[in-house]
Amino acid sequence: MMKLQKNFNGANKHYSRDASHYKGNALDVVHPKSIEELRKIVKTTNYLVGRGGGSGLSGGAVPLAGRDTVINLLQFNKINNFDKERKTVEVGCGVILEGLQDYLNFRGFEFPVNPFSRKIATIGGMIATNAVSSRVGKYGRMAQWIKWIDVMDCQGAISRKGVTEISDYSGMEGTTGIIVRACLKVVSKIKRSATIVPITNLIEMIEIVENLKRDKTVSMIDFCDEIISEGIGLEKKYHLFIEYENDLGLLKGPEYGEFLKTLDTIYSFVLGNGCIAIEDPKIMLSKLVHVTKWFREKNVLVFGHLSAGVLYVCFKEEQFSEIPVLRKLIKRLGGMITFSHGIGVLKRDFVEFNDKKILENVKKRTDPLNKFNVGKML
């Protein structure tokens, strides 16, 4: 029998927020263990918020106004039908990415979209936000690695969506249906190496990045600022983190493993430094020097994936008034205010009019009863 966790208890508090600073309030929290239980919830409940690991940074999985029932989807965690020849695997929406990587690595394969949040991020959540990782320049976004998804609609029916329909669900942040299962494409495990380059001149860094982007063996071009560099044990300079899919990097074998651990400490350092909001704009590299001046003036931390021009700009609570200023600056420079974290609640007021109309049309077509994640994106 399905159990509900009622209002205002300790468990509900856990589900009142994601990894962002935004807080909500759930009416109920339910934990379906089967498709039939999930179907019953969908058919009998008005406002539903699907939730995986809660790793989102835009409030996309936060229940609103005490009216939303949160569906904890972590029980849908089966991995099966791995096909070595076709390089595919089928996974439930609640599968944690790190668990999938362990499963694949044992078989000599890996999933190429591998963000910092891999220890808690679920496959369903990654599809819903069309996630990216440090290797975005080479491997792109989550949607590129999906063969099909099984989606439950607002009436409880499940249908399989192929490549041409995936955009109605991947990147729509759970507003159009509940993704319950997916078939993912995987790659053979690759032996990699890396190099860490200290940078004193941002113009020089941009030139290096432009050259690296032309090298098809480079799978990662990340960077961090001086403060983060010092915080993770490097010199107090900007640093580039370059990953190669061959042995051209200076760091190989165990040293390459230490390189990956160093990258993973960036996010921990940012949180430990009191930053509780992380913006994710995308800009042209030619604008990097201009925005870096702003970062220094405002004393905010920054790191990112320069292969795609994605910046992660980190704010403490007392700096929150600067977030809308940053968004306006990014738009003025011709950039995107969000690239990897999604719109959720926190950025919905910044959606362009034409983009909003497109989102509204997809929402009406896929969720005519307006049940799923109402108040997000729109």
Distance N to C terminus: 35 Å
Order of helices and strands: EHEHEEEEHEHHEEEEEHEHEHEHEEHH
Principal-axes shape call? globular
Rg value: 21 Å
Strand order of the largest sheet: 12-14-13-16-17-15
Task: Give the amount of beta strand, in percent.
Answer: 15-25%
Task: Write down how many β-strands occur, each being a DSSP E stretch of 2 or more residues.
Answer: 17
Major sheet: 6 strands, antiparallel
Mean pLDDT equals 93
Indicate the percent of residues in helices.
25-40%
Number of domains: 3
Low-pLDDT stretches are: 1-10
Structural class: alpha+beta
State the helix count: 11
Notable characteristics:
Uridine Diphospho-n-acetylenolpyruvylglucosamine Reductase, domain 2; 22% strand; 17 strands; 378 residues; six-stranded antiparallel beta sheet; 11 helices; alpha+beta; disordered N terminus; 3 domains; Uridine Diphospho-n-acetylenolpyruvylglucosamine Reductase, domain 3
Written account of the structure:
A six-stranded antiparallel sheet has the order 12-14-13-16-17-15, sandwiched between helices. Helices cover 29% and strands 22% of the residues. The chain is of the alpha+beta class and 378 residues long. The protein is built from eleven helices and 17 strands. It has helices spanning 10-14, 35-44, 97-106, 123-129, 136-139, 202-213, 226-231, 254-272, 288-298, 323-332, 353-366; strands spanning 4-5, 28-30, 48-51, 69-72, 79-83, 88-92, 109-110, 146-152, 158-161, 178-185, 187-188, 193-199, 218-224, 238-244, 275-279, 301-305, 310-316. Strand 16 (301-305) and strand 17 (310-316) form a beta hairpin. It folds into three domains: 4-72, Uridine Diphospho-n-acetylenolpyruvylglucosamine Reductase, domain 2 (2-Layer Sandwich), CATH 3.30.43; 79-188, Uridine Diphospho-n-acetylenolpyruvylglucosamine Reductase, domain 3; 193-332, no CATH class.
